[in-house]
Amino acid sequence: MTVIESPVDMRVRIGELSLANPVMPASGCFGPELGAITAADRLGAVVTKTIFAGIRSGNPAHRLAETPHGMLNSVGIPSPGVARFRGEVLPRYQAFGVPVIVSVGGLSVQEYFEVMDELAGAEFAAVEVNVSCPNLEAGGLEIGVDPHLIEQVTRGVVARTERPVIVKLTPNVSAIGTLARAAEAGGAAAVTVANTFTAMAVDHLTRRPVLGNNVGGLSGPAIKPLALRLVWETARHVSVPVIGCGGVSTAADAAEFLLAGATAVQVGTASFARPDAMLTILDGLRDVARAQSVDSIRTLTGALRLN
Length: 307
Prior knowledge:
Layout: E1 12-14, E2 17-19, E3 23-25, E4 46-47, E5 64-67, E6 70-73, H1 82-94, E7 100-104, H2 109-118, E8 126-130, E9 134-135, E10 141-142, H3 147-158, E11 165-169, H4 176-185, E12 190-193, E13 197-200, E14 202-203, E15 208-209, E16 215-219, H5 224-235, E17 242-245, H6 251-260, E18 264-267, H7 270-273, H8 277-291
Parallel strand pairs: 3-18, 4-7, 7-8, 8-11, 11-12, 12-17, 17-18
Antiparallel strand pairs: 1-2, 5-6, 6-16, 9-10, 13-16, 14-15
């Protein structure tokens, strides 16, 4: 006898943006070249690498270091600049046929606005504002640790586009709910929680840091419990959707983020070792829903039962 499995509605909404499913890459962890080895057209969306107004070469080597259950990166966000991004890079993301979320950065508040002005008329589905950049106007302090700057940047970006604006928050703070509320006050349609944790690796033989920039961002399974808590806390402070990010490697991980309050998830480090990780997570997440007799993946969001 043939068993017909019941379909699961995998659709989710991020503001005005409708996605076929809740799985997408984290910014910086998925380039257009990966489309040749994985079916990116099955994803809910693709997120571009962060772009700046000008050309950036990034940090000195070494830029990556493996750690127990994770990875350190200090790539420094290389960027081709907006003009080259529009002409050469963006069309390659668009070719996947799924919503393209453009990640924008700035080393000053004004640079975010310059990037958005230069993107005027370009075709994309949403903007993800990376506020974890060093703010040169404040002597290198991250814009993302100051709620007033977050609201200012968000409000300015929202004023320059009709697309949903997502704000990617840093975890390197004591009260992420305050920052999330600032993004919401600025008009954000959603927040991504969270970027990498500031960390370091040292070579005891050379007595030097492993990374060329001395410190970097920790990602991967090691940070999942920390990111889960941040997602749960953020979802209690804002009414806009939360996109969970940090150590999502399996379908179970993704389900846990949804239960903690996420509407969608981003996959980063897992894709470095397994280019098909996002598709495996997507298929497995559908199986998780079936096993729990859930007919819509949206049912899982915020369904955590507290002790």
